[in-house]
Each structure stands twice: as structure tokens, then as C-alpha cells.
Amino acid sequence: MDISVVVPLYNEEDSLGELTERIVKVMNENSYSYEIILIDDGSTDNSWNIIEDLSSLHGSLKALRFRRNYGKSAALYSGFGVSRGDVVITMDADLQDDPNEIPELYDMIKKEGYDLVSGWKKDRRDPAGKTIPSRFFNFTARMVTGIGLHDFNCGLKAYRKEVVKRIEVYGEMHRYIPILVKNAGYTKIGEKVVKHSKRKYGVTKFGFERFINGFLDLMSLSFVSRFGKRPMHFFGGIGTLVFILGLISALYLGIMKIVHLRQGVRTPLVTDSPYFYLSLTAMIIGTLLFLAGFLGEMISRDSPTKNLYEIENKIKV
């Protein structure tokens, strides 16, 4: 099979019919063998009923339905798990992504050898309240990760099949899939300017908190990518440094006490000095950090756990 189109959705009943027809039209015009995988992330509207009707019209359509809303990352992860195409295309269900971009994305994977091609909504049709924070976070992500993409969070992406089977999208990490791909060892990551349209139906499902969550997720992912498999390098290193500083301070206080006694100079008890307690605190904190690194190292040796999402219904999967 040439292409799997994975579409996560939540309360998008108005756009599903048009989106499916546009995808099918592009596939037929280019003679691709394909499947469309819709993942209903616990919608509370009529989305699933519309998906059932569409499945009777299009034999290539498959669908999963979550019992509750788990988030976009969970939907993508589940869609990746059942995809069979040599190239996997992801897009949002709100009609802001153009299915006509699929042939060029497919060629970049198959002919140019990219592992991942991420869309870049250069001319973005969103209000300033979304575009300005998005540019800031994309700039921050480029600086932190070294991946030269302009739009990490664009829903329109293309992957080699092997890539989606090797990454685990969890939490809110759908914003930073290129980083997950790079951490998995796939470094040929490209970018393509794609057409972006205004939302035709409904409203966005992401509020202002996505900006805060996005920044925290980036910091978390950056830390995990550097020290996730070697936590001792971080906690153990800092703990050792703090412990040594505390030990040196305590030794200094003790040596100065001995020197003063030999010189016949009356000095207060070492325990009367606040620096003694600061030194002791530093040694305790250093020891705890070292132990945290050691325990983290032991935990990281265990096999990774998978996120499990409760699927209520399936269609042709």
C-alpha cells in the first residue's frame, strides 16, 4: 500500500464528509493505493455516526473511536499503530490542511529519501493570538533542539512507515514529533511550505493553556532526550559537585578551628557557625541527588511502558 492518511479528530462533524471526499479525489487522480484512518478522540457530537456512514461509501476508510477524550497525541499514536502504508500522512480534520499537498509530500519521502517531511504554514490563516506565540515557541524549539524547522506543530506531515512504528507519541508531545523522530535516530528531516486555510467550521479545540503546556513539554522533552537513558550523568554530576562543595566548606571550618586552637585564639564552636549547617545541608542534598541519579539509572534499565488507550469502536481495523 502506498499511503496511509491518519486524521485525528474531536467534534468535527461538519468537516468530515468534505475532508474525506477531497482526500479520495487526490488519491484517485494519482492512482495511489491508500487507506484513510480516522481516529475519533471521544467526540461528543455526531462525528462517529458520520464516520460510520462514510465507511459504507468508501471501502478505504478505517476508524477508531476512543471511549473518552485522550488528546491528539494518543490519537496519532493509535493511528500510527494500525497504519499499513509505505508513507504515512497526517493532517487535521478541520479543513485547514489541503489534501492536494499529499503528492508532493509523498514524493519527498519516496524519491528524495526523507524520513520525515513537516509542513510549514508560511502564510498562516490564523489570528495573531495564535501566530505570534506559535512563532516564539517554534523559535525556542529550533534553538533548543537544533532542528531547523519553522513549524514544529503543523498537523500536515509525511513519514516513512518505519519511522512511525519506532516512535511513541505520548502526553502532549504531538507538538514536537520531529524531536521524537530525531531522538529515534532518523535525522533526514525536511520541510515543505504548505497551503493553510481558515477554519471553515466550528472553533479550535485548544485554549491558551497550550502555550504554557507547549513550553513545559519542550523543556521536558529536551531533558529526557539528553538524560533519559543516563540520569546519573545529570543528577549524579550535580549531586557530586554539591556534596564536594559542602565537604570542602566543612573541612575549611574544621581546619580553621584547629589552627586557631594551636595559636591560642579563642573561637566559638564549629556548630555555632551558620556556615557549618550550610555545609551539612549541601552534603545531604548532594547525597540525595546522587541517589536520585542512581535510582533513575536502575529504572531506565527496565523496558519502556506503553500508553494504553481504551478503544470503544473500530471500523475495518
Textual characterization of the structure:
- With 317 residues, the protein is an alpha/beta fold.
- It has helices at residues 16-29, 47-57, 72-82, 102-110, 128-145, 161-164, 177-183, 209-227, 231-262, 274-300; strands at 3-9, 34-40, 61-66, 87-90, 116-120, 157-160, 189-193, 311-315.
- It folds into two domains: 3-227, Spore Coat Polysaccharide Biosynthesis Protein SpsA, Chain A, CATH 3.90.550.10; 231-300.
- An eight-stranded mixed beta sheet has the order 7-5-6-4-1-2-3-8, sandwiched between helices.
- Strand 1 (3-9), helix 1 (16-29) and strand 2 form a beta-alpha-beta unit.
- 38% of the residues are buried.
List the defining traits of the structure above:
2 domains, eight-stranded mixed sheet, 10 helices, Spore Coat Polysaccharide Biosynthesis Protein SpsA, Chain A, 317 residues, alpha/beta
The main sheet comes to: 8 strands, mixed
Low-confidence stretches: none
Identify the quaternary structure here: single chain
Strand content range: 5-15%
Class by SSE composition? alpha/beta
CATH homolog superfamily of the largest domain: Spore Coat Polysaccharide Biosynthesis Protein SpsA, Chain A
Mean pLDDT across all amino acids: 86
Query: How helix-rich are the residues, as a percent range?
Result: 40-55%
Compute the number of strand runs.
8
Domain count: the total is 2
Order of secondary-structure elements: EHEHEHEHEHEHHEHHHE
CATH architecture assignment of the largest domain:
Alpha-Beta Complex
